[in-house]
Specification:
The protein is α/β, with parallel strands linked by helices and 312 residues long. 25% of the residues lie in helices and 8% in strands.
Length: 312
């Protein structure tokens, strides 16, 4: 074997060891790899499964499954054409023989959609530390702690008295409605109940933190429903007024006004009633004995003025 063929492997190995490749910048490396695609993919292209349904071709022979009668059956009106909705072969339709009777309860559109809250469920949340009983319990605290499902709060929350025998701590709560037994149980424990007016839109704003859950234009501040803040010396410092972007509404309908004017319901508008006055907007309290009538006629007023101006 000649020396030329013996040196060839050595020359190739030396060229691999001492050959210095050109340095390429890292950001140019992706550009050097040219993308390629196998030619076999073009023959396997298809749409996603279920992207389209094959059209049923009717009347194209018995082998298609929809030939001859095209799926309409043998004879009859529906095989030859279309029948109107409710058609019963030409006889008296069912909606004429058996029409709907009675009336619908239209009051369902005006009924309040309230989320129910029992005292035993509220006490369970307090025992678990989810609600602080030393602070006023409002609609926002009940929704944030998930004591009441926020999605079920339509026009507010109604407080019920189940488990009232377990109540031993005083609580101050603000709800839309409250039963008489729940009010008696809370006040017997040293707490307070206030019912106030809410709307579905105001409930949404309260949960968003854009509306005061307690005070409105017609409400009066209650010291039991204030959230005190203490200084380093232990004294209560006045709470700064927060500028709420959206105001809490007050009732405008007669039924809602009369409900929240009733002291038996612990309504927040009960301060508007004078002594002996009822919550109704139609019936006024009777006049005391000997009090002049506010509806005197002009003739009676002129006669009384003439008697007062007589000289003899």
């Amino acid at each position: 074997m000649s020396s030329k063929f013996r040196l060839r492997p050595l020359l190739q190995a030396s060229s691999l060891l001492f050959h210095q490749p050109h340095q390429v910048s890292p950001f140019l490396v992706p550009l050097l790899h040219t993308p390629y695609r196998a030619a076999s993919i073009l023959s396997a292209l298809s749409d996603n499964p279920g992207a389209y349904n094959k059209k049923i071709r009717r009347g194209r022979g018995p082998s298609s499954g929809k030939g001859r009668s095209s799926g309409r059956g043998l004879n009859g009106q529906k095989a030859r054409g279309k029948a109107p909705r409710g058609f019963n072969g030409g006889q008296t339709p069912d909606y004429v023989l058996h029409p709907p009777r009675g009336t619908e309860n239209r009051n369902t559109n005006f009924s309040l959609k309230l989320a129910l809250l029992n005292l035993d469920h509220l006490l369970e949340w307090i025992a678990q530390g989810r609600i602080n009983p030393s602070r006023p319990i409002t609609l926002k605290e009940l929704a944030d702690s998930r004591c009441v499902n926020p999605r079920k709060i339509g026009d507010g929350i109604k407080l019920l008295a189940r488990g009232s025998e377990k109540l031993t701590i005083p609580i101050n709560i603000i709800v839309s409605r409250a039963s008489a037994a729940a009010i008696a149980a809370i006040e017997a424990a040293g707490g307070s109940v206030m019912t106030r007016y809410y709307t579905p839109f105001s409930v949404i704003r309260i949960l968003q933190g854009k509306t005061d859950p307690i005070n409105s234009l017609l409400s009066q501040p209650d010291p039991r429903l204030q959230m005190p803040q203490f200084t380093s010396n232990g004294t209560i410092k006045p709470e700064p007024k927060k500028a709420w972007p959206i105001r809490l509404p007050d009732p405008a309908g007669r039924k809602a006004i009369e409900y929240y004017r009733d002291p038996a319901h612990r309504g927040y508008l009960s301060y508007q009633l004078a002594e002996g006055q009822g919550p109704s907007l139609f019936f006024k309290p009777p006049r005391p004995a000997g009090a002049p009538s506010p509806h005197k006629s002009e003739k009676t007023k002129r006669a009384a003025a003439a008697v007062a101006n007589r000289l003899w």
